[in-house]
Automatic annotation (TrEMBL):
Organism: Sphingomonas naasensis
Residue span, PPM-type phosphatase domain: 15-224
Transmembrane spans: none
Name this polypeptide is given: PPM-type phosphatase domain-containing protein
Pfam families: PP2C_2
Length: 275
């Protein structure tokens, strides 16, 4: 079996700020990467932000990685990012919070099954030809935690992170310092990585999403998993992206759906399994 690319879409959260998401697909591998928003100015890896740098490097590495079981591929990717960071680093980080990190979900075809591995909160949906929809990746526990944190800081103003230097940024930096973060980083570790194996067959369809796009299901309750896959099959990704942004611009103050940014980078990759 192989992956056939049907559509891909990636939107920056703000048109004036670079998109830190990446996605890609090759014959038997698909992936989405969500670079975590930088909490300080560029400089650690040169003039480019660390989130975009890490997402770019990881996506390029996966595009050329040797085929291997998903867990081995993830471990090799983590080591490669540590090596590339050692080469690219321009100075010592101000704190651990400045180290680039990202969420990642990769899906690999292996015989008659789909192997998934992930770090962080990217999400996937597998729609079988029977109509059954299987959730891939972590349930939105981390997004729930982020929502609660945003609520606790709402008095400082929500809707944007970049360019700020206040209690919101200091708190977010503190969360990056805590031990046990489950992310793709530059320290060579895959601690907390999770894995999943699901039966699949030609004709099944796969939707891989960063959390900015998965918000349609996980945060805004615009769809459940089955309804989202039905909408993708019926209309494609572009109308869903418009709906996503309409929900967010209609709540620009982030009061109905409490969140740090009015709109996050949002990426989706729609693949079909071919025989």
């Amino acid at each position: 079996m192989r992956f056939d690319l049907i559509q891909s879409l990636s939107l920056a959260g703000e048109a004036g700020i670079p998109n830190d998401d990446r996605a890609g697909a090759r014959d038997t591998l698909g992936w989405v990467i969500d670079g975590a928003t930088d909490l300080g100015p560029p400089g650690l890896v040169g003039s480019r932000g660390g989130a975009a740098w890490l997402a770019d490097e990881a996506s390029a590495a996966l595009a050329h990685a040797a085929d291997a079981p998903a867990g081995e591929m993830l471990a090799a990717l983590a080591m490669r990012m540590a090596e590339r960071f050692a080469e690219a680093r321009a100075r010592e980080p101000v704190g651990r919070w400045e180290l680039p990190i990202a969420a990642l979900l990769l899906a690999r075809l292996a015989g008659d099954a789909l192997e998934c591995a992930w770090l962080g909160d990217c999400a996937g949906l597998l729609r079988r030809t029977t109509g059954e929809v299987v959730r891939l990746g972590r349930l939105p526990v981390e997004r729930d935690r982020e929502t609660e944190l945003a609520k606790s800081l709402a008095s400082h103003g929500l809707g944007t992170i970049k360019g700020r230097d206040d209690a919101v940024i200091e708190t977010l930096r503190g969360t990056r310092e805590r031990p046990g973060l489950v992310v793709l980083g530059v320290e060579g570790a895959t601690d907390g990585a999770e894995y999943q194996r699901a039966a699949c067959a030609p004709g099944d369809e796969l939707l891989l999403m960063t959390d900015g796009f998965a918000a349609l299901v996980d945060s805004y309750d615009a769809y459940d998993a089955a309804a989202l896959m039905a909408a993708v099959a019926r209309d494609g990704l572009a109308p869903l992206a418009l709906q996503l942004r309409a929900i967010e611009t209609g709540d620009a103050a982030c009061t109905r759906f409490v969140r740090f940014k009015t709109s996050d980078d949002a990426t989706a990759l729609w693949l079909r399994i071919g025989g």
